[in-house]
Amino acid sequence: MVTTEESGSRARTRQAILQAAIEVLSRNPAASLAEIATAAGVGRTTLHRYFAERSDLLAGVVAEGVTRLNRATRRARLDSGSGAEALHRLCAEYFELGDLLSLIFADPQLVADPAWATEVCDDDFHGVVARGHADGSIDPALPSTWLQSVLWAQLYAGWSYLAEHDVSRHEVLGLVTRTVAGAVALRR
Asked: What residue stretches are annotated with the HTH tetR-type domain (predicted)?
């Protein structure tokens, strides 16, 4: 019989391994499982009990990434305010995912996983843009697929800028959201 405490401990260990994998792989996509185990504060045998192969760990990272992106999408309250306001909140929430975004940018093969295409906020994003087109807060000449690329490009630019310059996360988030807001605004 498994107790709640054991289940909680097991869940915390699994989460520590996934967090370490996201952090380590975001800096070095070729990092070894031993490096990830060390960063998680567990031995390799413990890591292998949770993730038998590297591919299992990467699948776990993809699932965790989808979960985190979906949580960020919910926190952005995409159904509130104008389309541009919702997009601004989504940009801010995604920016806070830091190491996960860095990993996505460092290893784009991860987003080739079908889970990204089916479970991350594409429909919600397209709905926000459609609402922005209708309420006049997003330029209707800009298709949602284009704006989705713009958002991801700006998030990448923001995290790259943060890594290369002596600036605060808050300052960079301001630059990213201001750039996205200017990019989507209706031209008069």
From this structure: 11-69
The domain in which residue 130 lies consists of: 63-184
pTM of structure: 0.82
How far is it, in rounded angstroms, from Cα 124 to Cα 179?
A: 21
pLDDT tens-digit readout, 129-161: 999 999 999 999 999 989 988 998 999 899 889
How many other CB atoms are found less than 10 A from the CB of residue 187? 6
Distance CA 92, CA 86 (A): 10
Closest CA to 131 of 84, 88, 184: 84
Residue 187, pLDDT score: 82
C-beta contacts of 165-171 below 8 A and 24+ residues apart? 169/95
Is residue 161 within 8 A of residue 110, CB to CB? The reply is no
Examine the domain organization and report whether 83 and 120 are in the same domain.
yes
Q: Is residue 120 part of a domain?
A: yes
